[in-house]
Specification:
Number of strands: 5
InterPro entries: Bact_response_regulator, CheY-like_superfamily, Sig_transdc_resp-reg_receiver
Helix content: 40-55%
Strand content: 15-25%
Number of helices: 5
Keywords: Phosphoprotein
Shape: globular
CATH class: Alpha Beta
Number of domains: 1
CATH superfamily: Response regulator
Protein name: Response regulatory domain-containing protein
Radius of gyration: 13 Å
Pfam families: Response_reg
């Protein structure tokens, strides 16, 4: 069973993602900020990370950069899931190492499709 790490400071979003992912048979880990997300990614080595952008302290772009540049975690695909939907945000997210960029609110089918795409590619 694939393990997915959710990094999001919104308990509502985290709960929603957890519901969707567990329903589809994924094991779910979560962190409520970027710094904890980086730490948990290094400790648990999840199969994939769903990363929010706007968070206190270390934001999602910074956390993505740290995870994708660290030797131990650079293989983990990161999908940014954010309310920020400007083209510049997408470009910047990919520059930080994110494999994909989804805009909230995300449809369940679209989320699962993208997750499967990156889990199967790995």
């Amino acid at each position: 069973m694939a393990r997915i790490l959710i990094v999001d400071d919104s308990p509502t979003e985290t709960f929603r993602f957890k519901e969707i992912l567990t329903k589809h048979g994924y094991e779910v880990l979560d962190a409520s900020n970027g710094a904890d997300g980086v730490t948990l990614a290094e400790a648990a080595l999840p199969d994939l990370i769903l990363m929010d952008v706007v968070m206190p302290g270390v934001n999602g772009f910074q956390a993505t950069r740290q995870i994708t540049r660290a030797e131990k975690t650079k293989h983990i695909p990161i999908i940014i899931v954010s309310t920020k939907d400007q083209a510049t945000d997408r470009v910047w997210g990919k520059r930080q190492g994110a494999r994909d960029y989804l805009t909230k609110p995300v449809e369940e089918e679209a989320l699962i499709e993208v997750i499967k795409q990156y889990l199967n590619a790995g």
